[in-house]
Structure formats: structure tokens, C-alpha cells
Amino acid sequence: MLVEQIVNGVVLGSMYALIAQGYTLVFGVLDKLNFAHGEVFMLGGFICLASIALGASLPIAILVTAIVSGLLGLLVEFVGFRKFRSADAHITAALSSFAIGLVIIDLSQKVWGAEPVALTLPGTLQTATISIAGLKMVVLRLAILAISLLLMLVLYLVVVKTSLGRRIRAVAESPTKAALFGINVTRVNQQVFFIASAMAALAGLALAVRTGYASTDVGFTFGLKALAIMAIGGMGDIRGALIGGLLIGVLEALAFQWGLGQLADVFVWLFMIAILLVRPAGLFGTLVSKEVRA
Amino acid sequence: MNRRRFAAGCAVLTGALASSTLFAADKPPIKIGVSVPLSGFQTPNGTMYRIGITMAIDDVNKAGGVNGSQIQLVIDDDQGRADQAVLLFRRHVADGVVASLGPISGTTWESVAPLADSLKAPVLNFTALKPGISKKPYALRLHPPDDLMVPEGVAEFVKKFPKVKKIVVAGDLKEASGASGINEFQKSAKAHGLQLLDTVGFDTRTTDFSPTAIKIRGLAPDAIFLSAFPPNVLALLKELDTQGLQVPVLVNALIWPGNFPQTVSAGAKNVYAIGFNTNESALEIKGHDEFTVRYAKLSGATTSLAKPANVANATIAYDAAMMLVGIMKEKHIDGTTDVEKARSEITNALNALKTWRGLNDITMKDTGDGYIRSHLIEIDVANKAWKYSLPKAQR
Asked: What pLDDT was estimated at residue B21?
């Protein structure tokens, strides 16, 4: 049972990590927090739901979710961040993105209602199990874990190995210098928002597929935890978001196993406080780099 | 002569009708405050009670109002939040309402009840489940709380499932009604000699119920007693289904109103709840079937309520409004009555009330709570509606 809980926690943590990496990607490039990110995550479940309702297969629904939410990310960048690029616009950009998040919730509730909406999936997709070393595992969860890890690996390779990644890192280092080198900073910002939003929405889709419901309530809860995970891992560090996400997922699962499920959220925040007391810049972050950016 | 008399009679009658209409129109309206959640996850519940109350007041106003005054409902959205409910209640009192209906949840009611007492403004709750939070003489509740409903529900559940011996109690420990339900389930389980394997808690904002389901499955219970709001129950049922745990799940009245019966899919055949009304015909209750038909029509016109309509305890919202109207009629309260005096008269009358027969048979307890006989209900999967679980003779 304990091993099963830990594996389950890793699956949950991988979804946290997907959202947290989106947060951290935007923060790394713009040095600003995108508070609409959690709601884009929430919308992922509903885009999938709508696609399936319109007759799309699950793979097509996944593709549609990634594209539509990526485009939504462009809108968030344009409305919430384009005009607030200066270093002293942190609060304005945060408030602006927060407002966009509220609009997304409100519109979603107008369309789909305030209660969870069941996601109809084919056959035994949600219940099929396999036995691994005597443990009964739900296949869908393992698939979600594999896909999440694959997406994060792809993101890591994009950032580290590709020309797009070099441009992203250049803008993250200094937008002014990057522009002087001929990099289109606005375009890079758009690309970052597209990628981050698509990843968040895919995480939202994974949650909806896993639980069988899309709900307008999940954005706030997951978004807030993903912020904590970003702080635990180190602001702006992709590896930190992954490790932080997995740690929090397992910690939550263990809290339930130990009969402290109602305190699972408290554990997350206590863990964040403890990590920041020991390592103020998070597990992988450095205070120096933050000071340079600021 | 006869024609003349007839004409004179008509003139007098027309004059009398005209003057009475003019008189009624001249009288200011009587205001009643209504605080229900019309946004957030409790929107379906808030909407159904709004419909119930509006139906009652429309009936009264169409019949000429109360002592010549029309009733004016001041309906506001408390979002299911205690802070908003307190603000709204204060605003309604300042606006001159003679009495208030709602808020509806345990947490919101718990916050407003003491305030009603200090502002000396009567307020009737008609849904909250947490015991011990009504505050006489100003804050009364018509709905039976969990300490009255849960024992009756568990008694019928045990009758239906005599082989159930070991149970797990699970629920939302952070919400007032959720936590009180857990407590009452624990007490009732003990009273029926059931073995309580463990109590598994979560909170309202929990989104992933797989750790909870794994934990419960590991305990291998014969049944689960659950106290939580519908979104949490739906998610947990789904997880239990995914984990392959097929045991009866008894939930308190938190899932009875709202969109639960139309929304639940996985685990629907395993879920039971506690309530005192269903969509089923009840000819022995005057007006019940007519109410059900009218309610279904009105609820069908809103987007926040799923179809087919789930009447559940919307009947008690209707009764609450009618109870206030009845008292005002009896006490000759109209729109010209001093608001303080009207509040005082309504409060005294509410506290003197022992029973009320409307769409529900309500007996008022010394605690300030109403009692209505509750029963075990289950999902009629084909019709997506609640139905009584036991035949009438066994209830």
C-alpha cells in the first residue's frame, strides 16, 4: 500500500511539475509571475471535454488542447504582459494576469457550470490495470507519468539544445542585450507563453482524464501549489520545478497514507517554508542570479 | 329596477375593487432578504432555493400580497462564503428587511446566526446540517441537522444492508457541515454496533482523491460513510470505482440537493444519501406533486441546474417563505408596520411555533432547529433522480 501511494504521488507530482515548469519558464524569461497560468491548466480539462463532445478521439483532443491553450497563452501575454515589461511592473503584470485568470474562471462557469463535468472516455481507459512486481497499477496513471516526463524532457532539450532554447536563455539573461544581438524579444516571449500554456493545459487534461471530471475549481488549488513548487525548486529553474513537483506529490500521498489527508495542503506550505529557511533561493536556484536579474 | 340595482351593484363593486387595488398599490412593499450562493460550486443549491422561495412569493403576491402589501425579495449572491454572507446580512438589515432567508451552508450559517442575535433581526435557515449552531430567538433553522438526519439514515441503511459490519468514515474535515457529518456518522456507527476501521479526512479543495481511495481500499470496509460536498463525493466515487472497490457508500444530505443525481456516473449504483423528499409522487402531501411539476418547469429554464430537475429540499425553501408570510398575515404586518416592531413580532411568532405543515411536516425543537422525518434514498440511474431506497412499509 505504501509503495502504491508513493507511485501515485509521483504521478500527481509529475502533473504539478508540468504546471510549475510553465510558471518557471515565464518567470525565467520575464521575471514576472503569470497568475492566469493555473486557470489555463483548468481550461485544459474543458477543452479536452469539449473536443471529445464534438466527436474528436483522445489523441486529437490532446492536440487540440495543446494548440488552443497555446493560443490562449499568446492572448495572456498580449493582454497581461506586453505593456508591462519594465522591471518595476511586477505588481501591474501580476494583477493583470490575475484578472485574466478570474475572467477565464467566470467564462468557464458560464459555459460549463460551477460543478464538475464528467468526461466520457472510451471503454476501460480509466480502469485498466496491470501488475508490476505484485503491485496493481492503473495503466492510465503510468501513461500520464510517462507522457509528463517525456514532455519535461523535451522541454529541457529545447531549452538546452536548440536555437529557440538559446534565444530563450538569452532573453532570460538580459532582454536588452538579446535585442541588441538581433533577437526578437516579443517573439521569444510569445513562444515561451505558447509552450508554458500548452504544458499547463496538458497537465489539466491529464488531471481530467485521470479523475474523470473537468472542474472549474482546480485551477486555483493546483496553481497555488505549482507556485510553491517553483519556490521550492528555485525560481526560474526547470529542474527545480520537476524535483519540487515530485517531492510535493509524494509528500501529499504520504500525508493521506498517514491519516493526515486534511492537512496535505499545510504540509506543502510547511515544506516550502522549511526549504526556503535552509535554502532561500530554493533547491536549484541561486540568490546571485536573482539579484542580477532584479 | 333590477337592471338599475345590478348597475349600482357593479359600480359599487368596481369602486371597491379599484380602491382596494389602489390601497394595495399605495402600501409600501414588505422586504424579505435572501442570501444564497449564485456563484461558485454551490450555485446549483443556491439556484434551487432561489426558485423555491420565488415560487412562494410569486404565489403570495399574485393572491394580493400580505395585508395589502406586496412582498419584495432582496436576493443576493453570498458565493457560499461566510464573509460575504455576513456582509449581505448586515446590508439586508440596514435595507429594512423584516426577516431574512439563508444563508444555506453550515459555515455561512454559523457566521450569520450570532449576528442575527446581536442585530435582533430574525433569520431562517433551511438547509445547514451542522448541529448546535442555530441561535434562538433570532436565528432559527427549519432543516433537521445531521444529529437528527444521520441516525435515521443509518438505521435504514443497516436495514437494507444487514451484512455490513465494518465501515470507514470519510469526509471533509474543514467544512462545518462535512465535519459534523463525520462526527454523527461515527456516533451512529457505534450505536448500531458497526466496527469503525478508520476515519479518513480530506478538505474541500482536495482535487486528487486517489490517495484517499487507496487508503480506504487498504482498510477493506464493507461500506463507507461519507460526509462531503458533491464535487468531492463525485471525485472520490470515481476513484473508488477506478480502484475496483465496489461497496455501498452512504453520504449525508450534502449531496441530496443540487446536480448530484444527474452528474454522478461512476459508482452511481453504490451511492446512498439521506433526505426527506424525492421527485416521486407523494399524493398524501397537499400540493407536493403540483410543486414538483412547477419546480421542474422553472428549473428547466436555468442553465445552472441539470436536467431532469432534482426537487430534493427545494420544498423547504418554499415552506420557509410561506411560514414568514403566514406569520405576517396573522400578525397584521404590512409595508407600513415599523420594521423593528415587525421583526420583533416575527421573532416571537417563530419561537412560539411548535409545528408547521406545508410541503413538509416540520416540528420545531427546543434547539431552534426543525425536525422532518428523514429516509435513505438512492439514485434511480435510469431517471437520474433520487428515489426512496426502502419500500414505504419498511421506512
From this structure: 47
